[in-house]
Amino acid sequence: MTPPEGPLGIIAGGGGLPVRVAEAVAASGRPVAVAVLDGHGDPAAYGAFAHAAFRWGLAAQMLAWLKGHGVRQVVLAGTVSRPSLLSLRPDAAGVKLLARIGRAAFTGDDSILRAVMTVLAEDGFEVVGAQQVLAGLLPAAALLAGPAPDDLARADIQRGLAVCRALGAADVGQGCVVQQGLVLAVEAIEGTDAMLDRCGALRRDGPGGVLVKCVKPGQSRLADLPTIGPQTVEGALAAGLRGLAFEADGTILLDRETTIARAAAAGLFLLAFDPAEFTEGTTA
């Protein structure tokens, strides 16, 4: 799509995605203004762009700063931990903003994102997905690396998809690890990397488990999509898994070539799957 006049605003959490979005947009000739969430993103990574750091409690100041830079379109990108009430320390404008967000700020991750996007829209911003400004983020269904999953691995993927859907319906997490039908771990507020760290000590003898990631039921595709990258592959390898399976057209694949190469070198399968193929009651 043709970008509108004016800079793109990026509300940046942690990880490499917001940096890549900023670099790609700037390379296209469009200005970028980055509001870095304090404690999540690294302001030093945005030295080439207009940027400022804001803690959650100063969210109203952040929106005013974006408006001051002429921003109309905003991307929410990067990893963010949901704040606790005591950590917010909002200013007067922040108190009013929190009142508009309501209790959603302290329930599920998708709940707060929907609330934040509503507030942004009410303030005149258009929220767009990172995939709309950075092509190639969401792989189509394909085996990207490694051997094709055997029947046991496919059964683990089917089991993992059902578990992820149950977690997502409760707005908890987007991933789990399944080995031989046993759920070794589910993703909650700690995130995928920390979940994988726990799995090594929990693995059973025999064929290794599978990391499964998918979009939550009813989740907005504008923010907080499941993400896989080189670090995920390294974590899966350290945990003794034999593959990673993620929802096609709904999961961000960071550093695509590097991630695929690392999975292939490790002998792990990397599968972007169509959920319909692994939904109980359907045929493969």
TrEMBL record:
Annotated LpxI N-terminal domain ranges read: 8-136
Segments forming domain LpxI C-terminal: 143-270
Pfam families hit by this protein = LpxI_C, LpxI_N
Tell me which domain of life the UniProt entry assigns to the organism this sequence originates from: Bacteria
By what name is this protein known? LpxI family protein
Native species:
Neoroseomonas marina
